[in-house]
Write a structure and sequence with these properties.
Layout: H1 4-13, E1 15-25, E2 30-42, H2 45-54, E3 68-77, E4 82-97, E5 100-107, E6 117-124, E7 129-135, E8 139-149, E9 152-161, E10 172-182
Antiparallel strand pairs: 1-2, 1-10, 2-3, 3-4, 4-5, 5-6, 6-7, 7-8, 8-9, 9-10
Length: 184
């Protein structure tokens, strides 16, 4: 499995970032802008193991080589509402098919629900897009991060109403777009 582009993507993610986002709430036809400042730092193998343990994931070989991070952010909406959160995450590649790398994305705390959670990721080595799919209780979140260059990323967030088992994702509740820029 060739992880060189995948590792480069995450090396570029470490640091301070600022983003302006627009959210389209389709359930009640509202559009809202927000400003977020966030910091991404690599975590130690001990903290990576804690993320595995919190998720009851089991043993993983070469844990020290897996991308693991601490993400802290503060968001202010145009209405003045503020949200801050901090979490740790770990990416566990499982298979590669051509330009695509797939695996599990673990967090010690989920965005929508305050609990550890295991999601799926798919990374495109050619376009440097990380696609993360999380199945929450009420929604399925499909989050995309495209690394344009080491100082700019494009973010897209699609939250679908969670369908019945086996049914397609076809009812959007939220669409978010943003440009993320790394601070010098």
């Amino acid at each position: 499995m060739d992880l060189s582009v995948f590792k480069y993507f995450f090396e570029c993610c470490v640091g301070n970032w600022v983003t302006e986002r627009t959210y389209h709430y389709l359930t009640h036809q509202e559009v809202e802008r927000s400003h977020t400042e966030f910091r991404v730092d690599a975590i130690t193998p001990d903290l990576k193991q804690k993320v595995l343990t919190d998720n009851e994931y089991g043993e993983v070989s070469h844990l020290e080589d897996l991308p693991g991070f601490r993400l802290g952010f503060h968001t202010v909406s145009e209405k003045g509402e503020e949200v801050s959160q901090e979490l740790r995450m770990l990416f566990v590649p499982k298979q590669q098919d051509g330009n695509f790398l797939e695996g599990d994305y673990l967090r010690d705390r989920a965005y929508e629900e305050s609990r550890p959670i295991i999601s799926e990721f798919r990374f495109n080595n050619e376009t440097r897009e990380l696609l993360m799919t999380t199945r929450y209780t009420r929604v399925v979140s499909v989050d995309s991060i495209i690394l344009v260059n080491p100082k700019m990323r494009i973010r897209r967030i699609l939250n679908y109403q969670r369908p019945a088992e086996g049914e397609p994702l076809d009812t959007l509740a939220l669409v978010g777009f943003g440009v993320e820029q790394k601070e010098a």
